[in-house]
Specification:
The structure holds two protein chains of two kinds.
Chain A (H helix, E strand, L loop, with lengths): L1 E4 L7 H11 L6 E6 L2 H14 L2 E8 L2 E7 L3 H7 L11 E5 L9 H17 L6 E4 L14 H9 L3 E5 H6 L10 E3 L1 H10 L2 E3 L2
Parallel strand pairs in A: 1-2, 5-6, 5-9, 6-7, 7-8
Antiparallel strand pairs in A: 2-4, 3-4
Helix pairs in contact in A: 1-2, 4-5
Chain B lengths: L20 H8 L10 E3 L8 E6 L2 E10 L6 H18 L3 E11 L5 H17 L3 E9 L4 E10 L15 E4 L5 H9 L7 H10 L3 H5 L6 E4 L4 H10 L3 E5 L10 H6 L5 H12 L2 E3 L4 H8 L7 E5 L1 H18 L6 E8 L5 E3 L1
Parallel strand pairs in B: 4-5, 9-13, 10-13
Antiparallel strand pairs in B: 1-2, 2-3, 3-6, 4-6, 7-11, 7-12, 8-11, 9-12
Helix pairs in contact in B: 2-3, 4-5, 7-9
The chains are: A alpha/beta, B alpha+beta.
Keywords (chain B): ATP-binding, Kinase, Nucleotide-binding, Selenium, Transferase
Protein name (chain B): Selenide, water dikinase SelD
GO cellular component, one term (chain B): cytoplasm
């Protein structure tokens, strides 16, 4: 086991030096790292947790804290990434990106979208998630005529999410009437994992 | 940078050198509470400065700030230290009137360095329309610089840092991530543009951001405790807030640098403090999380104000900056709510 003596170094140097050493060494390598303050220990623990590295606290002496970090071995690294999600059925996501369905007359478009969401509750196969963004935020907030339908979906286990940035933009931040608030990371994650994306 | 002046040694200065919020509040709680009824703001409310009422329409604002070099260029360091020290007065709605230098410098050091630091500080004080009127210097092993600043304010229109109202929009007037950008720069790992943007942000006075504000509910400036720490002070025990990470103004590249662990010890202390005080993340990626804890030197104003006013304010500030050729970002980053289960919900 190699030792990195990083006493006398202030953050972020202990983490950066440890990261360099681990990345330059073979998978499965363990380094003992010595730092001189508890904050550096916390930073190293956070680093190990983020990167999936093994982390073991060693002995503490005044001004000398020892920890061990181990990079994952090659097999574990391979299987952790790229493993296909096991699923028997297709993941369906409905993405509602405006307050109307289709282009043309706005009143018609609003009526169509209301009808679409109602029809969705009546369909044989319900989606896993319904996402609302941009003008779609008007559908999940007070004044929408689709609240009842969306609540039916939500009660049946369908994830109903509205983009928080959009709610704030339209001044609807405190008017959400159904489902949860989401950010773009969640939206990207859900859209990326979908087998089927339905855009009315 | 003047090539004839040696660069300063930066160990990780600026507001990252601040004592952690937990340690500080423990020590401050041991001190006797002031009793002067004209002392409108002391440290009881974790506010930025002291405010003493002299007459019904006049109060004096006193504040000071100093730290070791945050950048290697002495002149720029002086500018940053001055912009940072004066900011507390603007965060209370006051006007900066005089400033005194606070200096520690190695007696055997290059006096040109000291001259450049003081010139940088004097330039920012002059730009603020205030008078640099003296100071105090001691010899020491490391460099420290800052200013003691005196301002005036109408006590009837004093802005406090802990009086937001439910429904208020939260506005942040400068981008976050200067601590991360400077840490990476010190280790020669900052992509082009990150450090430069951080310097542009740190040297900008909060003067105009304050002048453009009309009747905000609560104001503070974001410094060593990071956005999360200063927002916790604003919310106190009566309010909660929701932060929209997509709306946060950021120094370029800081999310990537945070994922590369260019994180200061101050940021780790800030995270520990905030998470122990009810800050929760709703599936926010690690790099974005860290930005909320990053200690800012000469950071922007954090303002709680009615939503319609906030829209107009952000637009006015953008116009003002465009007119003066700067391109710092400001935006509405969240909402104040009634007290909820969490103190700060970040999503």
């Amino acid at each position: 086991m190699q030792t990195l003596d990083l006493t006398g170094k202030s953050c972020p140097i202990p983490v950066i030096e440890t990261k360099k050493a681990l990345e330059a060494s073979a998978p499965g390598t363990t380094f003992e790292v010595i730092v001189d303050n508890p904050t550096s220990v916390e930073n190293l623990a956070k680093f190990a947790s983020q990167r999936g590295y093994g982390f073991v606290r060693g002995s503490d002496a005044p001004g000398e804290f020892r920890v061990q970090l181990t990079s994952p071995d090659a097999d574990a690294a391979g299987s952790a990434e790229g493993a296909p999600a096991a699923s028997g059925r297709k993941v369906r996501v409905v993405a509602v990106s405006s307050r109307t369905m289709g282009e043309g007359d706005e009143r018609l478009g609003a009526t169509l979208l209301k009808g679409f969401l109602y029809a969705l509750t009546e369909a044989d196969a319900w989606p896993d998630s319904v996402l609302f963004y941009n003008g779609g935020a008007y559908l999940t907030t007070e004044g929408s005529e689709s609240i009842e339908d969306l609540k039916r979906l939500e009660d049946a286990g369908v994830q109903v999410l509205t983009c928080g940035t959009c709610l704030n933009h339209y001044g609807l931040g405190d008017k959400l009437a159904v489902g949860g608030v989401s950010n773009m990371y969640t939206i990207v994650e859900i859209l990326s994992a979908a087998d089927l994306i339905i855009k009315p | 940078m003047d090539a004839t002046i040696a660069p300063l040694f930066c160990s990780g200065g600026g507001c990252t050198a601040k004592l952690g919020p937990r340690a500080l509040s423990r020590v401050l709680s041991q001190l006797p509470a002031p009793t002067d009824p004209d002392l409108l703001v002391g440290f009881a409310s974790s506010d930025d400065a002291a405010v003493l009422r002299l007459t019904d329409d006049l109060a004096v604002v006193s504040t000071l700030d100093f730290f070791p070099p945050v950048v290697a260029d002495p002149y720029t360091f002086g500018q940053i230290a001055a912009a940072n020290a004066m900011s507390d007065v603007w965060a209370m709605g006051g006007r900066v009137r005089t400033a005194l230098n606070i200096v520690a410098f190695d007696e055997d050091g290059d006096l040109n360095q000291l001259g450049a630091i003081l010139a940088g500080g004097a330039e920012r004080v002059a730009a603020a329309g205030a008078s640099l009127a003296g100071g105090h210097s001691i010899t020491g092993d490391g460099v420290l610089y800052g200013l003691s600043v005196t301002g005036t304010v109408d006590p009837r229109h004093l802005w406090r840092n802990d009086t937001p109202q439910p429904g208020d929009a939260l506005v942040l007037t400068k981008p976050l991530g200067v601590g991360i950008a400077c840490a990476a720069h010190r280790l020669d790992s900052a992509p082009p543009g990150a450090f430069e943007a951080a310097v542009a942000s740190m040297t900008e006075l909060n003067l105009r951001a304050a002048e453009l504000l009309q009747t905000p509910h609560a104001v503070t400036d974001v410094t060593g405790f990071g956005l999360a720490g200063h927002l916790l002070e604003m919310l106190g025990t009566d309010f909660s807030a929701t932060i929209d990470t997509l709306a946060l103004p950021l120094i370029p590249h800081v999310r990537t640098l945070a994922e590369g662990f260019f994180l200061t010890a101050a940021a780790q202390r800030n995270r520990t403090h905030a998470e122990a005080n009810g800050l929760v993340f709703d599936r926010v990626p690690f790099g974005v999380q860290e930005v909320l804890f990053d200690a800012q030197t000469s950071g922007g104003l954090l303002v709680a104000m009615p939503r319609p006013d906030a829209d107009a304010y952000v637009a006015a500030l953008a116009d003002d900056r465009a007119a003066s050729g700067t391109r710092l970002a400001a935006s509405i980053i969240g909402t104040v709510t009634e007290r909820a289960e969490h103190t700060i919900l970040v999503r």
